[in-house]
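Q: Could you fold this chain for me?
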Amino acid sequence: MKIVAVTACPAGVAHTYMAKKGLEKAAKKAGYKIKVETQGSMGIENEIKEKDLEVADIVILAIDTKIDKSNRFDGMKVHETSVAAAVKNAAKVIEDAVNKYKN
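A: Sure. Below is the predicted structure, expressed as structure tokens.
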């Protein structure tokens, strides 16, 4: 399973990066590959490229603020949640995303 994710909170500081770290750790533990783009006070970091989207099975958007989706994820399996959910229990966020599109 290959996952791409975007994390973004209104302030774009601590929680954005805490969510990233949590998702990466939980994905690794579950045996999934993940690439997490952060959109924070430093701008966009670790940007998801077209080639990343081509191989991704699921997109997780852990966002509490508006992001520019610009049709990037059209036709993809997208699971949207809050940054807080990813910080508190990233494993559940990943599990919910995978289960949502299991069939």
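A (continued): The two ends are 14 Å apart (CA to CA).
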